[in-house]
Design a protein that fits this description.
Mean pLDDT: 93
Shape: globular
CATH topology of the largest domain: Glutamine Phosphoribosylpyrophosphate, subunit 1, domain 1
Bound molecules: 6-O-phosphono-alpha-D-glucopyranose
Oligomer: single chain
CATH architecture of the largest domain: 4-Layer Sandwich
CATH class of the largest domain: Alpha Beta
Strand order of the largest sheet: 3-2-4-1-10-9-11-14
């Protein structure tokens, strides 16, 4: 994983690089480092922990160099130590390199280089790549293109994924980047050009962004740049305006991005919904699906591929789309789909859902689906992301940047878009205009209902205080509230490190009930349907075993006193929006639970916002 950024320009690199790293911290924050080309040597600074630790050191050292590379790390090979922190320098001091990805065959390459007498100072795969470039450079005849040639010779020897930025001591005006599997984008500004993992790293400093494709090299020389293939052929450079790619993000009065993003949901959902309904008020109109109507009308099955929270949103979609459109839906872990030999006979549509649009497993699942000739659509939040560029069509979430590692507003908008997709597909098939109209009204009313639930945040805080000593919690729900149970458990464990599991409520009897004791609270999501009686019976089973029950239930459902210790009420709502509403108290519960433990909810240990390794 990790975030990389490189600067080559007329000004001083230091500030742009540190600023860029801060914006890339969502990609990992185990350690951070920077290297500057100082004419006859590289100066370096590397620190474990957050980018702010590095920033303090860099500020004291103060380099005036106008060429540098920087990295924020999410450890894959080797512990979180200074020596494993990027940039890595080659044994002869000629090259420095930053790398995002995993070189799978680094062991045999390292053995080969060791056989040539090269010593290593880290446990990383990245240092191996840096030395491999140095090795080829030393072997190549002197020429103007010697640096580029060395990179071109080294990369085909690597298996796995990489996005790299590399500097050569002999070239004080050249910065080279290359990608395979991991994203890389060139930023073009008036005073400087950049290479980075994503465009947020140079927002405000570059005007145009050029996304690299797999197997491409970006060669920045002075104020010029060119994109070539690894084999040396010129490649097309399509530029996109940077201001349409990413926005500045201010924390405002909130004490964390997670809190801010939870409370932003009414506005975020308004943006997701805006202008996306047909004039007759009975269906949705998703621009990104235009041109695919015939294929969509004729579908045999939908396969969702996603990871983490996005997959839970897809599972909500599974229930809603099957209910509205009567199309069979499967939800796959993207990492499983890509290696499965699943029979894809018939007219299947693959929908990949990813907030960042850069999750490697999800992208690889899309690539696999395309290899099999399937139509692919993407639901993503990040404009210009790899997912947006690689799918046949798709829909943007429009919820603004999500910074907190624990996904909140993105989940709500993804589930909302799944409902809108179900509505569109339903209206192409059997769904009546009246049923369609009811769904449109429910979705249009969603932002206000979300605001209403969030106004009761204090009650959730009090419940979090009551249950905050628990180390094991169960989340239970049926039908479209089952994925909400999974998401509630995921949110809690991600940021509070308490152990939590989500189950379909009826599965309680098939194992989890053995865990019930007064110290293992059960959080039940109660449906607003006839199924609620069955869920309430499950709650009674817990109470009969001296367990504690917190029920999240719609206002209209009566809950006997003896069935729950606490009840949080949700407003009366249409079934398509209930999962989104039921998830809100769980977001707030996890948030307060973690805060009460004094934890950093935005940057939980070991996690990263965007997972760009397998
Ligand atoms: C990481 C994040 C999760 C996120 C998942 C998928 O694990 O920590 O919050 O749900 O990746 O991310 P995506 O960007 O593909 O939605």
């Amino acid at each position: 994983m990790c975030g990389i950024v490189g600067y080559l320009g007329n000004g001083i690199a230091q500030e742009s690089l540190i600023d860029g790293l801060k914006r890339l911290e969502y990609r990992g924050y185990d350690s951070a480092g920077v290297a500057f080309h100082e004419g006859n040597k590289f100066s370096m600074a590397r620190e474990t922990g957050r980018v702010k630790n590095l920033a303090e050191v860099v500020q004291k050292k103060s380099s005036s160099s106008s060429l540098g590379i920087a990295h924020t790390r999410w450890a894959t090979h080797g512990a979180v130590t200074v020596s494993n922190t990027h940039p890595h320098r080659s044994h002869d001091g000629k090259f420095v390199l930053v790398h995002n990805g995993v070189i799978e065959n680094f062991s045999p390459l390292k053995k080969f280089l060791k056989g040539k007498g090269i010593q290593f100072t880290s446990e990383t795969d990245s240092e191996v790549l840096c030395n491999l470039i140095a090795f080829h450079y030393a072997e190549s005849p002197k020429s103007e293109e010697r640096f580029v040639d060395a990179v071109r010779l080294a990369l085909p020897q690597c298996r796995g994924a990489y996005g790299i930025a590399v500097l050569c001591l002999d070239k004080s005006d050249v910065l080279i980047g290359a990608r395979r599997g991991s994203p890389l984008v060139v930023g073009l500004g008036d005073d400087a050009n950049f290479i980075a993992s994503d465009a947020s790293a140079f927002v405000g400093r570059a005007k145009e962004a050029v996304f690299l494709n797999d197997g491409e090299l970006a060669i920045l020389r002075g104020r010029d740049f060119r994109i070539t293939t690894l084999e040396g052929q010129e490649a097309q450079a399509v530029s996109h305006p940077v201001d349409q790619i990413s926005e500045e993000v201010e924390l405002g009065d909130f004490d964390s991005y997670m809190e801010k993003e939870i409370f932003e949901q009414p506005t975020a959902l308004k943006n997701t919904l805006r202008g996306r309904f047909g004039d007759d008020g009975t269906t949705s109109k998703l621009g990104g699906l235009e041109g695919h109507e015939d294929e969509l009308r004729d579908l045999d099955r939908i396969i969702f591929v996603a990871c983490g929270t996005a997959r839970h949103a897809c599972m909500v979609g599974e229930y809603l789309i099957e209910r509205l459109a009567r199309v069979p839906v499967e939800v796959e872990h993207a990492s499983e789909f890509r290696y499965r030999n699943s029979p894809n006979a018939g007219k299947s549509l693959v929908i990949a859902v990813s907030q960042s649009g850069e999750t490697l497993d999800t992208l690889e699942a899309v690539r696999e689906a395309k290899t099999k000739g399937l139509l692919t659509l993407g639901i993503t939040n990040v404009v210009g992301s790899s997912l947006a560029r690689e799918t046949d069509g798709g829909v943007y979430q429009r919820v603004g940047p999500e910074i907190g590692v624990a996904s909140t507003k993105a989940f709500s908008s993804q589930a909302c878009l799944c409902a809108m997709l179900g509505l569109a597909l339903g209206r192409m098939r059997d769904l009546s205009p009246m049923d369609g109209q009811a769904v449109v009204e429910a979705l249009n009313g969603l932002p206000d209902l979300v605001a209403h639930v969030l106004q009761q945040a204090e009650q959730i805080r009090e419940l979090a205080v009551k249950y905050s000593k628990a180390e094991h919690l169960l989340f239970l729900g049926r039908q479209s509230l089952y994925p909400v149970a999974l998401e509630g458990a995921l949110k809690l464990k991600e940021i509070s490190y308490a152990h939590a599991e989500g189950y379909p409520a009826a599965e309680l009897k098939h194992g989890p009930i053995a865990l019930i004791n007064p110290d293992c609270p059960c959080i039940f999501m109660v449906e607003g349907t006839e199924l609620s009686a069955k869920t309430i019976a499950n709650m009674q089973e817990v109470k009969a075993r001296k367990g504690q029950v917190l029920a999240i239930a719609p206002e209209e459902i009566e809950i006997p006193d003896e069935a729950a210790d606490d009840i949080f009420r949700l407003p009366v709502a249409h079934e398509v929006v209930r999962p989104i509403l039921a998830n809100l108290p769980l977001q707030l519960f996890a948030y307060h639970f973690a805060r009460l433990r004094g934890l950093d909810v935005d940057k939980p240990r070991n996690l990263a916002k965007s997972v760009t390794v397998e």
